[in-house]
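Practice problem 4.
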């Protein structure tokens, strides 16, 4: 009975409360007049919507910054529809071409590049003079295809047309870097920094700083770029690059954090997915690493990613699974070649360790003649070592690692390659120094290379106790104490 009385009291109290609330609402409605609304009469007021995906992608593409894949697809559809109505709109042709370049880069689908070239050349045909946007697009396309000589030509043509057009500078920096002309890349960056600031410029500066070996400056620039980025896809791209820097210096926890943050912001950021695979493998979390690599390859099928996954399988003793990935690498490279992409660097790298080292030397010599960048110098030096020619190999290894020869980047694989080449030449002291440097930079830089690096270092032993020389000190880079000249 007491419980029933309490329940009845609560019900009466609830009824009285609702009556008071109703009276208050009515009073507000009377006092407020037309500005008051019943709850079911309130208008559907929503915050203003942001720009449409195509508009956001247009802003990104014209500024040379990363764009989201849905935005790029919308932009391409919009421009194609517009060009069907206005086929002589040179600017729209240039935008369409640039969007195809970015879509190809993001998806690793080289089939986009012939479409990009057709659109950009149409823009140049419709407006053959004063068409800097199309020249910028052609430079970006050439870089995406790893044709750095053409990228340099297009980029320099864009600057001759308008030296204050800041978007012409980033593709030109990439071209100079790919050609090994680090001084020109630095001068071009200095000019860009005079003309423009912002996230895209800071990210470009970070790449140059990294190539100079200024890792702290590069990391700070990327942190600033990510903080200032205007869209999730752009910020994710800069976080992915920051993750690569953390990976290179062996900070695995930070690398994994940055890669994961990039994927959370932009699930289509597959380079960050592959970075997670690399980092998880180094941390011994093999099952997670394999899953991350498979996701990355499913959405962004790059030959370099297939090579990494194949080497991980090989390090686990799974030879058949490794061969599947190596076959995929060849297939992807053939598809890239059909789209005009130069994959000779990754093919030569693969052949040096998993195929025919002499074939690797032939590929990489030809690549060096076309575009003598730091990556090619390192790969060619290693291929020569694998083919048994350590004397020639050392000159290229020095070109990749010695600041005086343009190789300022601090890279564990480059230091490892140089140390192993020096060991093959009987140069114990520099070999010991460079193998130690490789393991100090990143103790887990490669699932296949770290064990032989440790074994070689152990075989070299500790340096002997010798009196300090009293004469003029010589270098330790070559047998005569002199660093080899940059190879030609």
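Answer key:
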């Amino acid at each position: 009975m007491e419980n029933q009385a309490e329940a009845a009291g609560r019900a009466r109290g609830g009824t009285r409360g609702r009556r008071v609330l109703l009276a208050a609402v009515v009073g507000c409605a009377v006092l407020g007049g037309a500005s008051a609304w019943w709850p079911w009469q309130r208008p559907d007021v929503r915050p203003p919507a942001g720009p449409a995906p195509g508009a956001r992608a247009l802003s990104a593409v014209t500024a040379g910054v990363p764009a989201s894949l849905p935005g790029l697809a919308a932009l391409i559809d919009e421009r194609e529809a517009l060009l069907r109505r206005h086929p002589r709109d040179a600017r729209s042709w240039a935008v369409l071409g640039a969007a195809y370049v970015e879509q190809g880069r993001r998806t690793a689908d080289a089939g986009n590049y012939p479409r990009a070239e057709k659109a950009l050349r149409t823009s140049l045909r419709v407006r053959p003079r004063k068409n800097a946007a199309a020249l910028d697009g052609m430079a970006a396309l050439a870089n995406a295809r790893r044709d750095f000589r053409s990228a340099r030509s297009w980029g320099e043509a864009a600057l001759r047309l308008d030296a204050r057009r800041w978007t012409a500078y980033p593709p030109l920096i990439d071209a100079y870097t790919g050609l090994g002309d680090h001084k020109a890349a630095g001068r071009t960056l200095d000019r860009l920094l005079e003309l423009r600031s912002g996230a895209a410029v800071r990210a470009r500066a970070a790449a140059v700083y990294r190539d100079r070996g200024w890792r702290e400056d590069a990391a700070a620039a990327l942190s600033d770029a990510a903080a200032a980025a205007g869209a999730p896809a752009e910020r994710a791209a800069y976080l992915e690059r920051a993750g690569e820097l953390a990976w290179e210096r062996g900070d695995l926890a930070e690398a994994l954090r940055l890669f994961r943050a990039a994927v959370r912001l932009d699930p289509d950021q597959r380079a960050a997915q592959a970075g997670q695979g690399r980092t998880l493998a180094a941390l011994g979390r093999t099952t997670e690493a394999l899953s991350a690599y498979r996701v990355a390859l499913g959405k962004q099928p790059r030959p370099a990613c297939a090579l990494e996954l194949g080497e991980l399988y090989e390090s686990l003793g799974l030879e058949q699974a490794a061969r599947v990935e190596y076959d995929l690498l060849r297939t992807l490279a053939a598809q890239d070649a059909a789209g005009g992409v130069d994959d000779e660097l990754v093919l030569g790298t693969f052949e040096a360790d998993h195929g025919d080292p002499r074939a690797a030397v032939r590929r990489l010599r030809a690549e060096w003649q076309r575009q003598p960048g730091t990556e090619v110098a390192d790969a060619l030096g290693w291929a020569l070592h694998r083919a048994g020619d350590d004397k020639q190999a050392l000159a290229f290894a020095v070109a990749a690692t010695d600041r005086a020869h343009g190789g300022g980047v601090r890279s564990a694989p480059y230091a490892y390659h140089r140390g192993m080449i020096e060991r093959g030449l009987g140069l114990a002291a520099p070999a010991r120094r460079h193998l130690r440097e490789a393991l100090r930079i990143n103790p887990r830089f490669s699932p296949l290379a770290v064990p032989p690096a440790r074994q070689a270092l152990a075989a070299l032993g500790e340096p002997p106790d010798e009196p300090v020389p009293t004469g003029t000190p010589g270098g330790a880079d070559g047998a005569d104490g002199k660093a080899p000249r940059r190879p030609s």
